[in-house]
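Researcher: For the annotation table, I need structure tokens for Pentacotripeptide-repeat region of PRORP domain-containing protein. Please keep the output clean. Sequence:
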Amino acid sequence: MDKKQVNLSRVCVKVHFDSAIHLRKPPKYLRYPRRTKLPPDFRIDTFIKPGKEVKDHEIDVPVDWRSNDPVEKIAFGDDKDNDDGDNEDEDDYDVWEADEIEAISSLFKGRIPQKPGKLNRVRPLPLSLPHKIRPLGIPTTKKHVRNSSPAVLSRLSLSKQIYKDPTFLLHLAREIRSLPAEKNVSFVLNKWGRFLRKGSLSLTIRELGHMGIPDRALQTFCWAQKQNHLFPDDRILTATVEILARTHDLKLPFDLERFTDLASRGVLEAIAKGFIKGGSLNLAWKLLCAARRGKRMLDSSIYVKLILELGKNPDKDDLVVALLEDLGERDNLNITLQDCTAIMKVCVRLGKFDFVESLFNWFQQCQNQLSIVMYTTVIYSRVSANKYREALALVWEMEQLNCHFDLPAYRVVIKLFVALNDLPRAVRYYSKIKEAGFSPTYDIYRDMILIYLLSGRFAKCKEVCKEVELAGFKLDADLRSQLLQIERK
């Protein structure tokens, strides 16, 4: 038999078709598809799998890497061509070498093996992303995680969960209130004492004071004094003395100067707050005077609260003026917008217009946003001081800032235009009141009647008088006498 010797370096690939279906020609819709086929999925090697079978395609592709087996060629064409291919010469076909087969099979297995060299190469940093508006998010460190989150609370101990929980501390106050009179607060507090920490009972003591049982608050403070892990603590001390001062159960010592020198600032402020809330304004005044003589600087909010309370009593005007002067000498003021406006109203009532201007200038220098109430108060102060031009300049400033006027602002502005005898502007703002949906007050009606009388517009006076009657107001005696005199003339 004439058979050619086969080179040992060649590869034998045998393809067996297990079914007769593979002998048929594919239909036209497979031979001439309408669109290009999708690229093969390189994750699944369905072409060459040594020693395994591809069940999905029912094709056996055994690859024999031994060099002593004969080589059989593969013709990728029709079946008829395969039958004729046995008689042709072997040199007419391309035979793949072993390294070529290895390289092709590696494409379907994964990454192509690299040549030995620098294995641990350093990859370059990614380029910056200028299109991003904000920088990349940095993970939050564990020390900044909120302790109130449910995930964190589940890992905390019972002491860390309840020692500053308002719900638990208020419930503790309710349990103390429900105790019989003969039982001490220790009956409730001993159960939870080991879970409390410094400052925990301050909220409970304040709640007991709001409930009107200051004796229970004092008992709670005395129990806390005996606990080494809860006392000394300024928070429960200040809460207790404030409640006792508010309920008139705290007695001041005779030597106030020595007391103010020894007591802390928090305790002095708590006592002053308690006296002011309880109505003991004389005691609060004495305490502030003793602190001033001892050169103890208390918070400015204490002075503000005392000024507002003393300003309600006309007999205490001298004390209010002294407090205002003391407040004006301080360099650092801590006054809110509402407190500043309230002090301005007290100063207008006392006729201290210079204090109003000083507070207004200070508030503007602090670059704070002014409110319509403060503007109205300053305009009313300037109208009361007969500074009409300065008040008018403030009105134009409000117009430029597009401030939305309320009813008191309209009332003060109309009063200003009546004082300036400016009828067109007064009528314009009077019409704005109705456009804004406000109902004019009796003061506004009276000012409009007066300015119409001064300008000789008697028909308009009658129209406004009819509006006054429809609104349910009655004219005062002086205005009615003026109208009667005009009708007789």
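Researcher: And a one-line annotation?
Model: Residues 257 and 290 are 6 Å apart (CA to CA).
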